[in-house]
Amino acid sequence: MPSLSVFVDVPLAQKLEGSLLKTYKQDNYPNKMFLAYKVCMTSEGQPWVSSVVSKIRLQIAQDPSLDYEYTPVMGMESFIQASLKLLFGKHSQVIVENRAGGVHTVGDSGAFQLGAQFLKTWHRDSQIVYIISSQKEPHGLIFQDMGFTVSEYIFWDAEQLCLDPSVLLNVVEQAPHGCVFVIGNISNCKLTQSQWTKLTALMKSKQIFPFFDISYQGLSTSDLEEDTRFLDYFVSQDLEFFCSQSLSKNFGIYDEGVGILVVVALNNQLLLRVLSQLMNFARALWLNPPTTGARIITSILCNPALQEEWKQSLEGIIENIMLIKEKVKEKLRLLGTPGSWDHITEQKGSHSYLGLNSKQVEYLVKKKHVYIPKNGRINFTCINPCNIDYITQSINEAVCFTKP
Amino acid sequence: MPSLSVFVDVPLAQKLEGSLLKTYKQDNYPNKMFLAYKVCMTSEGQPWVSSVVSKIRLQIAQDPSLDYEYTPVMGMESFIQASLKLLFGKHSQVIVENRAGGVHTVGDSGAFQLGAQFLKTWHRDSQIVYIISSQKEPHGLIFQDMGFTVSEYIFWDAEQLCLDPSVLLNVVEQAPHGCVFVIGNISNCKLTQSQWTKLTALMKSKQIFPFFDISYQGLSTSDLEEDTRFLDYFVSQDLEFFCSQSLSKNFGIYDEGVGILVVVALNNQLLLRVLSQLMNFARALWLNPPTTGARIITSILCNPALQEEWKQSLEGIIENIMLIKEKVKEKLRLLGTPGSWDHITEQKGSHSYLGLNSKQVEYLVKKKHVYIPKNGRINFTCINPCNIDYITQSINEAVCFTKP
To answer: Which ranges of A286-303 would DSSP assign to H, the alpha helix?
Structure first.
């Protein structure tokens, strides 16, 4: 008699994400294009790596003094400290008062997994999470799988073609007391001083817990301090928060899981209590986080000359993004594409909304084999001298041929 | 009014493990010794690294053709395939029939976390886990935190001073139907052919699910095939199982989380269903596992000359372990320490029972500052020419001065 499988009731799992990429890969059209990669691409269509990273990688491999022992559960302490200083600035209130700390995690998914486990256990009054739509996968799903109710929000105004701070303020106003609010690249959404004050006051009065998602420091404006300055508004209001700090994309280290779950508490004693709980979760998740990426980044951040070299590589990439956006806008103008395309250059960073409606997006994917997400937010570094003409002509067609 | 902390109810977490190491570190006695490190140590008291690893590390850093893109959620496919062949042998039934697969995990803790999450969801009929005492921390705690009932077992017979297969068989006989049975370095416990048959038949009839914990392949006998040959008994009985395969200790890559959760199912279709579910858990845990260690190991395993070099380094370490054990036994004999110490050399691998009772262990720790676990199972590679005299004299004292 054949044996009965233990796994007889296990179904094939549904794929949770990546369906656009999958469809793209299955497409046999020779001129197909994928404009939704998560990371910055070079003009040769390869993932960008900061030039200083390759140099340090070699130096580390040649260093005979290094041992490769297990790291502590918390991770590499020097990596955590260097990254906290990068995030907040050396002289930040939370650093000086010793009330910011972190746990070295396996990338940003690891940071969200760790943070979500903590909040599931210790933030019992509300198990509702707000998250920006574009981050529903994979971070929102981590909360959802753990039993949180996940609500999506979006602050792209498709009519006005801009990121609208008042939309964000409305979402926060309507969000329930005590919920968790995942905040991504908010620096792109130009809040005025009074809007920042209103936002933080609202969060404080409603005891909303901010959980920042920062994986683009230096890739929004190339000014490292500018890109995370908004955290000061939260710090100055005595808000406590978590922050997933990922350093994959701004160094070009994609395969090493370089993340930190940053904790800001009201004082050092509270911080230590939270970190001690997080350590127990991390012990069960992976025991020791991987160190190669962390070691490379620490070497760069702790050496002013190397840090300067890294900053210059960030400036290079930002200049390139601005150039691509200008060219796309100019080509659309020359093609006589209806509408203003200023919103393309008004948005910062690699990922920006094209400002297309769902029919136009569908046209691009189905008719032109140009794969872009439904919300029309693309990675502009996927556009290069080889494909820009085809892409802009396709956008022009999509706009002209799909009038509402 | 000062703000009220979100974290006000969060207590300082209790430390779950490492208390012996912590006490050791706090001890100011100059001649203190720690004999419970998890990894093989060199005679200079440093964690052992296979010489071929350093060479490949450098080669990889110099390779301009490598990109450092995100790995798939499953991890590095070439690493998984090479590791499966190492574990089962190229011509194993499960490889040929395409019913063994794996997910690349962040070390063995990651493999247990992933496996436990799967079993929590898909093995609902029994949530009882049996685990050998020495692995209660950290692997048993992963199951416990997830709500499993965890029972410890031990097959060291403190009277007969040997690993007793009949103890193991008794435990399995008494274990409840359908439980999960975590099995560590069982090759050390010399089962006869008929005992193996009895063990696997028992497990099959009671639908006990084996979860192997293999982190020492090549470090038990230096014969890679010999160390995992017992898996064949389970395969030939058509038992399905999980296996945490960790390659940290046998390559000397401790800080990179090189693990695999291996799945053996009755056929390829079942395997793919299980892997698809595991992939969704892995996506939430860390999304992409780290690659540095996996890349080094794959380079070695896929190159016969490098694999030979690695095997030779394993032979070197095993010879050294046998030499240390012989010397310890000889020194105890010369000191006239009561009792036979043959059990030291009869056990294989770095970690073996000294065969001391709890009073003797306490004497060693408290009076002689020689830190060894309560069960008296020490890492013999922590003993070297500099400390062997002090250690054997201390054991002699402990035995002579603590008569029952």
So the answer is: 292-301
pTM as predicted: 0.93
Q: How far is B394 from chain A (nearest CA, A)?
A: 29
First and final CA of chain B: distance in angstroms? 64
Class of domain B19-49+307-401: alpha beta
Domain A19-50+315-401 annotated CATH 3.90.1150.10 = yes
CB contact under 8 A, A286 and B5: no
CATH architecture of B69-290: 3-Layer(aba) Sandwich (3.40)
Task: Give the gap in angstroms from C-alpha B82 to the nearest C-alpha of chain A.
Answer: 19
pLDDT in tens, A152-186: 998 888 888 888 899 899 999 999 999 999 998 88
Q: Are the Cβ atoms of A276 and B13 closer than 8 angstroms?
A: yes
CB contact under 8 A, B16 and A47: no
Q: Would the CATH topology of B19-49+307-401 be identical to that of B69-290?
A: no
Q: Which of B62, B70, B255 sits opposite A290 (nearest CB)?
A: B255
For B311, the 3-state DSSP assignment is helix
* pLDDT tens, position by position, B84-127: 999 999 899 999 999 999 999 999 999 999 999 999 999 887 89
Domain ranges of chain B: 19-49+307-401, 69-290
Q: Which of B14, B54, B60, B292 to probe by mutation at the A interface, max A CB count within 10 Å?
A: B292
Question: Which residues have a Cβ under 8 Å from the Cβ of B19 and sit 6 or more positions away?
Answer: none
Task: Sort B280 into a burial class: Cβ within 10 Å, 0-12 / 13-18 / 19+.
Answer: buried
